Amino acid sequence: MIFTPSRFRFRVTAMRETVAAENRPYHHGDLRRALIDAARRLLESEGPTALSLRAVAREAGVSPAAPYHHFKDKGELLDAVAHEGWDMLNAQMAKSKAEANSIQDKLTNLGVAYVRFAQTNPALYRVMYDSSRDKEMLPDHAHMENDSAYCQVRDTFVEAGADVSDTIDLELATNAAWCAAHGMAEMIGFKQFDHLKVALGGEEAFIRAVFQHLGIFAAGQGR
């Protein structure tokens, strides 16, 4: 079989790229961790459409076959990235709650932390919910585990005086608070709020004021 010079150069280049990728020194130690971190970087810099196992491998500096040792497809990788996002949100909300003194401030801080997380990690935040749209509910670690964001809100309501035996009322209050924070995260960039942000002294002051005007964020109201 006769190769033209251009075709010959193309084949050599492709082979060299493959060999280079496979022989590239790997310094991460934890391949799964490195792949998730690479996926997060790509999400925030280029968006979900740019994400593929091959692109993540390239970003992590490993061979194209390496991701398949941990993820069978892009969906599994996105689920792992979403899991990471929920863990980050949980930690950020816990830190924010710990910085407050009063019950009302704890609830407000939880809401502010949620919105700030969504603003800081927009692509990750979207993946956290997108990965659950074809499922019946959010993953267990997002709402069932004791350190989850959901449980932090629920437990703070109990701390505020909610009747723990009235499970329906407690669940309604927790879901109301969650929906309020999620709605604020979706709408915070709307220009129609700009004059309120100016009047109140900034965006965070606006977020706090909105939450403080919601009865569900006021300690002991009706409880």
Taking Cα atoms only, what radius of gyration do you get, to the nearest Å? 23 Å
Name the average pLDDT: 82
Major beta-sheet overview? none
SS elements, strand count: 0
Note the gap between the termini: 84 Å
Question: What order do the helices and strands follow?
Answer: HHHHHHHHHHH
Q: What is the count of structural domains?
A: 2
Fraction of residues in helix? 55-70%
Can you tell me the CATH architecture of the largest domain? Answer: Orthogonal Bundle
CATH class of the largest domain: Mainly Alpha
Shape: globular
| Share in β-strands | under 5%
Number of helices: 11
Describe the protein's topology.
Elements: H1 5-23, H2 31-46, H3 53-60, H4 74-98, H5 103-120, H6 122-130, H7 140-143, H8 149-159, H9 167-187, H10 194-200, H11 203-212
Helix pairs in contact: 2-3, 2-4, 4-5, 4-6, 5-6, 5-8, 5-9, 5-11, 8-9, 10-11
